[in-house]
Write the structure tokens for this entry.
Amino acid sequence: MPAIVEDKKTEKAGGKEKAAQPKTKKKTADKWKKKSWYTVVAPEEFERREIGETVAEKPEMIIGRIINISGRDLANQPKKQHIKIMFKVKTINGNKAQTEATGHFIKDDFIRRLVRRRSSKVMVVKTFSTKDGKPINMKVIVVTDRKASGKKRASVHKKTEELCKKFVAEIDSKKIIDELVFGNLPNKLYPELKKIVPIKRIEFANSSFV
């Protein structure tokens, strides 16, 4: 740590030179000693797994804090490494921070790697309603197995929107994030979309509750 260099300037007072008073070093409290660690716990639909730790001086300071965790770390599924699930701290119970799932996202570079020269990408961005009426923003990416005409891409877009509206309306808001990340919704879309054009991949790129 660099030494504190005192200013050696003097000033005259009543004809006498008065040396500048040295500055005193202020003692700073060690804030870390005042803080406590809390274990962050996923909600029931994610089997209340411990997903991390966070620190704060007071429990109420953790409320609303967002924790992101990969699908691989959450469910020990290596194929879900590219997906991040977002959890928001809702309540504190002792040293446990209870959370709720608020959405998920996929890294853009992963999506870019899916789309090749001889394929087409159809993107649907829309707000849907869950079974219990909670609105959720979703982005769905459909990658075709070969280049698709503008007309077929429009048909895929329309059908994807219709199917998502139908399936999301059948799922409770507490279970929708789990279903989007680990469920079989892509498999439900696939049979209908492949009737329009051969499909290579369907990804729910991101979601977030309104």
